[in-house]
Amino acid sequence: MGELILILGGARSGKSAEAVRIARQLQDGQVLFVATAEPGDDEMHFRIEKHRAERPVHWHTLEAPRHVGKAIGRQSERYSTIVVDCITLLVSNLLVDKPDPYAEAVRERVAQEVEEIVTAAIAMPCASRMIVVSNEVGNGMAPLTPLGRAFRDLVGQANQTLAAASDRAVLMVAGLPLVLKGEESQHPASAPWESEVNAAAARDE
Catalytic residue numbers? Predict the structure, then answer.
């Protein structure tokens, strides 16, 4: 059973960079990077190439804009680390497949995709891990369009499902990781401060 790590964050929060950093840090075998983006225009093509250039050249890349869990499941045993980037674009891809963003079929499809990703993580060998990246979409104003609101709702529900199943969850803010679940979070600068407080308490006693 592999470890599931969820990395959340807003736009340009450093979530993808954090996923790459963790994968580099934990790398003890082959790494598979699963990309859900589709190069629909020149800007997206540029972004995809930029992200690709930031990854180690020896990593393997799997392009899976849909059916991510099934695509991973066929080869999960070959890799010690799998990075899925990202759930947000996966949901977007599924939304454009249907004319009605609030259709029950869309919600069911997104839920199925997320469950298949969780299943793929569970099926990975022990001491391996899957790192999943997604946007935190609930901090801004309510979207003005039905499509935007449906997108927010679907991504939010997907994030909740992944967070519940994850061994560790991290929220990225301005490039800094805030641990929401899993290992204890301690700021490096807190230890000296705590030592001074403890020493002062001892003197008072």
Answer: 51
CA distances (Å), origin 190, targets 37, 69, 139, 162, 168:
39, 40, 28, 30, 22
**For 9-66, what is each residue's pLDDT tens digit?**
999 999 999 999 999 988 677 999 999 988 767 777 777 787 777 788 889 999 999 9
Using a 10 angstrom Cβ sphere, with 0-12 exposed, 13-18 middle and 19 or more buried, the burial of residue 154 is buried
Prediction pTM value: 0.85
